Amino acid sequence: MCHVIVTCRSMLWTLLSIVVAFAELIAFMSADWLIGKAKPSGSEDVDNRTGGSQEPYHPTLGIYGRCTRISHMQFSRRDTLCGPYAENFNEIASGFWQATAIFLAMGIMILCTVAFVSVFTMCVQSIMKKSIFNVCGLLQGIAGLFLILGLILYPAGWGCQKAISYCGPYASAYKLGDCSLGWAFYTAIGGTVLTFICAVFSAQAEIATSSDKVQEEIEEGKNLICLL
Fold first, then answer.
1. Is the dihedral of CA 180, 182, 185, 189 positive or negative?
2. What is the pLDDT of residue 69?
């Protein structure tokens, strides 16, 4: 018989697992890893005709994508264009970034799998006498190691030609030059820290769902068990 067991700790672990997976996925897909040096937003002729001033903008560069601003000379309108600069894996600007993409993708795949499984832990707490919480916690720890490897390798690619075109000639491995770090990089770091917190907290979720109070509720014949 299936018993639906919901506790504060198990629910918090489930929500954190989902949040972490989405945060890492969004960060990976974003082009806001590096914020380039300021550039003029349009040509001087357009600005002189319209009486406007050249407002600088900062192009951004991600692992495989970028955002830049293009000017429509006919209408004196400027749009920000975002998209992948690499049409395939081999066109990613640096070998270090290729390794980063692999490690982050592996970590994110594991996190998304755990996030999906965590939703069903309310009904199924063990498989083949193994606690799902403990297995998921182990997987989250492994995913965290993949994420760390990816984040360590990422700055090593700052000396590639693509990064230099955004960050200036002084950019090199682990040196930003004229660039600054964007929100996606910090989100990836924060998600990595939360991944390890989830891995540790999974043990608390397992304890909460197998406590004496839960067993007493099961013995009383209740199928829906909610405990604080």
1. positive
2. 74
62: helix, strand or coil: coil
- Distance CA(191)–CA(114), nearest Å, equals 14
How far apart CA 37 and CA 46 sit, in angstroms, is 22
153-211 pLDDT, tens digit per residue, is: 999 999 999 999 999 899 899 999 899 999 999 999 999 999 999 999 999 888 877 76
Structure tokens at 38: 């300021």
Q: What's the pLDDT score for residue 45?
A: 38
Q: Kindly give the parts of the chain with pLDDT less than 70.
A: 1-3, 40-55, 70-79, 211-228
Print burial letters for 187-201: b (CB count within 10 Å at least 16), e (below 16): bbeebbebbbebbeb
Instruction: Name beta bridge partners: 156.
Output: none
What is the domain count for the chain? 1
Which residues have C-beta within 8 Å of that of residue 64, sequence separation ≥ 6? 84, 85, 86, 92, 97, 101
Q: Which domain holds residue 180?
A: 4-33+92-226
Of 113, 105, 114, 183, nearest to 149 by C-alpha is 105
**199: domain CATH number?**
1.20.140.150
Q: Are 165 and 39 in contact (CB under 8 A)?
A: no
In a domain, 134, yes or no: yes
Handedness of CA 92, 93, 97, 99 (dihedral sign): positive
The verdict on residue 52 lying in a domain is no
